[in-house]
Design a protein that fits this description.
The structure holds two protein chains of two kinds. By secondary structure, chain A is of the alpha/beta class. The mean pLDDT of chain A is 94. Chain B has three domains: 132 residues, Alpha-helical ferredoxin (Fumarate Reductase Iron-sulfur Protein, Chain B, domain 2); 162 residues, FAD/NAD(P)-binding domain (3-Layer(bba) Sandwich), CATH 3.50.50; 156 residues, FAD/NAD(P)-binding domain, CATH 3.50.50.60. Chain B has a five-stranded parallel sheet. A five-stranded parallel sheet of chain B has the order 6-14-7-8-9. In chain B, strands 10, 11, 12 and 13 form a four-stranded antiparallel sheet that branches. In chain B, helix 2 packs across helix 4 and helix 4 runs antiparallel to helix 5. Classes of the chains: A alpha/beta, B alpha/beta. Chains A and B meet through helix 1, strand 7, strand 14, helix 8 and helix 9 of A and strand 5 and helix 14 of B. The complex binds flavin-adenine dinucleotide, iron/sulfur cluster and FE2/S2 (inorganic) cluster. The site of FE2/S2 (inorganic) cluster (FES) has 12 residues of chain A, from loops. The site of flavin-adenine dinucleotide has 40 residues of chain B, from helix 10, helix 15, helix 17 and helix 19.
Chain lengths: 278, 476
């Protein structure tokens, strides 16, 4: 049982939550995630650890309400308990002084790329951050990202704020300006990561993506999370979650993520009906 | 009583059948298939035992259960006492009575097996254990004062649970770290409810907790803490029992398509996460109409019978050899046949075909024939040229084996493994190449059986007791 310490709405459907988890907080490194299960009947879902405070014994997560479990989590209040929190899982991000790096985050992926930007900055890199959202109200962590970045570019798909366009276009502009980039970290929706990889591939800029495969145990035991990287089958939970984006089979990832689309919708709809009934 | 074996003419009595749910009924539910003996039947079956002076059955039991003694107690109607007798050497009799391959163990060596049919030792074991549990008279043994030594057990499968029970009774302070949210290992995530009701495993785990064993779930050792950190925290010895849970795929084209599961995933969703109760439980599972399960072991039988219960109209076993070579228990193969599973033998998948959404629609197979015997002594299956054909499916479960889970070995300095990643032990007591670290169960032997994993836990308990306190007395 882990207690929810604090809950903040970052946008209409994105929530930040601080959870009591002292042992995990002590061990966690940038890039790692937890598995969380709300109650006895709940599903196990992976969520990236955005921040941790070893002294306070807490970890922070940021999630978008996309299904029943995240909706339940969003409905929970500070003081409520989560039945199971397992972690830290996955391999930490490889952090070094690479030189100049670009951290690209889309939507809720901004929350995932943020701790990586923090660690890269600390390691001495010049950090350029490009963060985007569909529209201004959905943009998260702008202030926080700004603090750890040498340069911040904000984009919105509808032009309501910052650069009018996609993060990939902003990245293309940075490349065109002649910036010598050693590495790109791109995290967000699958189409976004795919497009970013398409931008960096011709310039041969190593691009690390973090994959959000469906998981069950997250200890390498089931293969639910399998992806194809460079033609080889890898398990996201133990071999990842970060991979060389130029080698990831995004089509396979996309189709496997849709495997339970109808069941997920059914569970989400049932939950919303029950809640409205109350 | 002494003279009983000498009774002049012993009537040949057939072994008593255990009532079962009817096949067409049971494939509609996940309830247990065999229903257990009544008191009368159990006593009648127990009195078939001729109480051999030198019981050969015991030689077939990996943990030396005093079989004639517990059987005799049942024949006398002393059911609770029979359960206690079992528990002297086997801490999970309700589990073993259900899942031990008795036909290869105790029952194979029963003297009656030669002339008629062996005593139904497994069914009697199950009866006694169930009787005790249902009576509510499960006794908590007296636990000696703590001896100040702390033991960490990694993995709460049968091996880890056994050693925990043994060491707590010897006065140790025992903490079990389990990666998942529930203790039990394969007993909770792998073996289906219809073969082993989860309430039985839960009762055993609660019993250990009552004895004082601390169980820390959601604790992936190697990630949350390493073995070195456990020693730093003050543990005096560590027992590794993390099983052989990593799935093996065949690496044939199309195997990552949607609708294709490893047996571990399929069974974990269904058993541990209770996906068969979706949407009451949140975890989904694909309820395929045409389901192919690849493999011929117990895991394959469990998967295919799960598929039927999830509503499959056609459930296939695709196996590259013949029924004779199938590693699954005969009983399980029979159950599957009764339930309508279609066996595609001498058949091997070579490729999966999917639709435009990436969902599997067919498995392309090749026919096989048996050639020369291979290293295992079984005749090697060889493909028949140009014999490919396609079976239409919408769900596939790959049950061709498992391998060592690398997380703990990879994060523990000085712990040697063999080429396949299994931990090397010096002898059967589980001593590893790292001082104070012991290992047992599937992570040492590769996929084996519940009783062997338990036996390894018991032996390691003795070894740790000797290592820490120089005590040679064996745990009981
Ligand atoms: C579907 C299926 C059916 C079977 N049927 C039978 C049968 O009928 N009869 C029979 O005798 N045998 C059967 N077996 C085999 C039997 O279950 C195993 O041999 C036995 O469970 C091995 O026990 P174990 O304690 O070594 O490991 P496991 O039962 O595998 O338990 C290992 C535990 O360690 C945990 N773990 C793993 N890594 C870590 C980590 N890093 N940190 C903490 N915990 C960790 C796992 O989550 C798991 O709970 C079956 C196996 C399967 C898969
Ligand atoms: S534990 Fe297994 S082998 Fe031993 S007596 Fe019981 S059923 Fe037979
Ligand atoms: S989630 Fe099960 S192996 Fe990765």
């Amino acid at each position: 049982m882990n207690k929810i310490i604090e809950k903040t709405d970052l946008s209409e459907n994105v929530v930040k939550m601080v959870i009591d988890a002292p042992a995990i907080a002590k061990k966690r490194k940038a890039g790692q995630f937890i598995i969380l299960k709300m109650n006895e009947k709940g599903e196990r879902i992976p969520l990236t650890i955005v921040d941790s405070d070893a002294a306070a014994g807490t970890v922070t997560i940021i999630f978008q309400i996309v299904g029943k479990t995240t909706a339940m989590l969003a409905d929970a209040k500070a003081g409520d308990m989560i039945a199971d929190v397992q972690g830290p899982l996955g391999n930490p991000t490889e952090i070094e002084n690479f030189g100049t790096v670009v951290c690209v985050g889309g939507g809720v992926g901004v929350g995932v790329v943020y701790p990586i930007a923090v660690a890269l900055k600390k390691a001495g890199n010049k950090v350029i951050s490009i963060i985007g959202a569909r529209t201004k109200d959905l943009l998260i962590l702008e202030e926080e990202t700004k603090k750890v970045s040498d340069r911040l570019i904000v984009t919105t798909d509808d032009g309501s704020y910052g650069f009018h366009g996609f993060v990939s276009q902003a990245l293309q502009n940075v490349i065109d300006e002649g910036e010598k980039i050693s590495r790109v970290f791109a995290i967000g929706p699958v189409p976004m990561m795919r497009v970013v990889c398409n931008v960096t591939r011709p310039c041969n800029i190593k691009t690390v993506v973090s994959l959000n495969s469906i998981m069950v145990d997250a200890t390498g035991m089931c293969g639910a999370c399998r992806v194809s990287v460079g033609g080889e089958t890898k398990f996201t939970c133990v071999d990842g979650p970060e991979f060389d984006g130029h080698k990831v089979d995004f089509d396979l990832l996309t189709s496997r993520l849709r495997m339970y689309a109808s069941e997920e919708k059914q569970a989400f709809d049932n939950y919303r009906c029950e809640c409205h009934g109350k | 009583m002494e003279n009983e074996p000498k009774k002049k003419k012993r009537e040949k009595l057939p072994r008593h059948k255990m009532p079962e749910q009817q096949p067409l009924e049971r494939i509609k539910n996940f309830n247990e298939v065999p229903l257990g003996y009544s008191e009368e039947t159990a006593m009648a079956e127990a009195s078939r035992c001729i109480q051999c002076k030198k019981p050969t059955c015991v030689t077939g039991c990996p943990v030396d259960v005093d079989i004639p003694a517990f059987v005799k107690l049942i024949s006398e109607g002393k059911f609770i006492e029979a359960a206690h007798k079992l528990k002297e050497t086997n801490c999970l009799p309700a589990v073993c009575g259900r899942v031990c391959p008795q036909e290869d163990q105790c029952e194979k060596f029963c003297i009656l097996a030669k002339k008629e049919e062996s005593v139904a030792i497994g069914r009697l074991e199950r009866f006694a254990a169930d009787y005790e549990r249902n009576s509510g008279q499960v006794s908590i043994p007296e636990i000696p004062a703590r001896n100040g030594k702390k033991i960490a057990v990694i993995g709460a499968g049968p091996s880890g649970l056994t050693i925990a029970g043994d060491l707590i009774k010897l006065g140790y302070d025992v903490t079990v770290y389990e990666a998942l949210h529930k203790a039990g290992g394969v007993l909770v995530y792998g073996i289906p409810e219809f073969r082993l009701p989860k309430s039985i495993v839960e009762a055993e785990v609660r019993y250990l907790e009552k004895l004082g064993v601390k169980i820390e779930t959601n604790s992936v050792i190697g990630r949350l803490k390493t073995v070195d950190e456990l020693f730093d925290e003050g543990f005096h010895a560590v027992y590794i029992a993390v099983g052989a849970g990593a799935p093996v795929f065949m690496n044939i084209p199309g195997e990552n398509a949607s609708g294709i599961y490893s047996a571990n995933e399929y069974l974990t969703r269904s058993n541990l996460m209770k996906a068969y109760l979706f949407p009451e439980y949140d975890t989904p599972i694909v309820r395929g109409k045409n389901v192919a399960v690849i493999g011929g072991g117990n895991v394959a039988m469990d998967s295919v019978r799960t598929a039927l219960r999830l509503g499959a109209e056609n459930a296939y076993i695709i196996y590259r050899r013949t029924e004779v070579e199938m590693p699954a228990r005969i009983e399980e193969v029979h159950h599957a046949q009764q339930e309508g599973v279609q066996f595609k033998l001498l058949t091997n998948p070579v490729e999966y075909i999917s639709d435009k959404n990436g969902w599997v629609t067919g498995v392309k197979c090749i026919r096989m024939e048996l050639g020369e015997p291979d290293a295992s002594g079984r005749r090697r299956p060889v493909p028949v040229k140009d014999s490919e054909f396609v079976i239409d499916v919408d769900t596939v479960v790959v049950a061709v084996g498992t391998m060592a889970n690398p997380i703990v070995p990879a994060t523990t300095k000085g712990l040697e493994t063999n080429k396949q990643g299994y931990i090397i032990t010096k002898d059967e007591k589980g001593e590893t190449t790292r001082k104070g670290v012991y290992a047992g169960g599937d992570i040492v032997t590769g996929s084996a059986t519940v009783i062997l994993a338990m036996g390894a836990g018991r032996k390691a308990a003795g070894a740790i007791h000797e290592y820490l306190l120089g005590n040679k007395e064996t745990p009981s």
